[in-house]
Design goal:
The chain has 177 residues and is mainly alpha-helical. It has one domain. Helix content is 75%, strand content 0%. It has 7 helices and no strands. Helix 1 runs antiparallel to helix 2 and helix 5 crosses helix 7. The protein starts with 12 loop residues before the first helix and ends with a helix. The relative contact order is 0.16.
């Protein structure tokens, strides 16, 4: 019996760029947990990757992406002014709006909101339990986890960069990366 090989579609340049963006998003999320700061260099890297990805998809996509990301930025700035989001979160959300296809930005916002809700519930549960479950590993990750346990116990703000990165991961996977 001869089995026909089903060819996988060849990866495109926008797909390759999105794959490069994944570890950058992960680094932004980790830094947000570790020090509650998202470095501008990571945000700029995501934005540059987004511009490159949209340019590879066609100039019409780049222009539309800028318009959509500008609307997201304005809305996020209003949330920042009300104390709902941090400044790094605003910049990261706008950069991820450039990274994903413009038609997928509503999905990005919804996935980010759902991830943020799950993050909030986990923080509430951990606060009730008085911190993270033991044992916490040694080393840098252990230090970050112990610091996060301390923050959770004191009701510190959520590292919303984690939710933004999770929303972006979901949309990138959903759109074919």
């Amino acid at each position: 019996m001869v089995h026909a090989m089903v060819p996988f579609p060849a990866p495109t340049i926008p797909d390759a760029i999105a794959l490069v963006a994944v570890p950058v998003l992960a680094a932004a999320a980790f830094r947000d947990v570790a020090v509650r700061r998202i470095p501008n260099a990571l945000v700029v890297a995501i934005a540059v990757l987004g511009v490159s990805r949209q340019a590879a998809a066609g100039m019409g996509m780049l222009a539309l992406s800028f318009i959509v990301a500008s609307v997201v930025l304005l809305a996020a700035v209003m949330l920042w002014r009300r104390g709902v989001l941090g400044g790094g979160d605003v910049k990261l959300l706008a950069a991820t709006a450039v990274l994903v296809p413009p038609a997928a930005v509503p999905h990005l916002l919804l996935a980010t909101a759902i991830a943020g809700g799950l993050l909030a519930v986990s923080h509430l549960v951990l606060r009730r339990r008085r911190g993270l479950p033991a044992p916490i590993p040694a080393g840098a990750i252990g230090r970050v986890l112990r610091c996060e346990a301390w923050r959770i116990g004191r009701g510190a703000p959520l590292p919303y960069g984690v939710a933004i990165a999770a929303g972006a991961f979901f949309v990138l996977i959903r759109t074919g990366v």
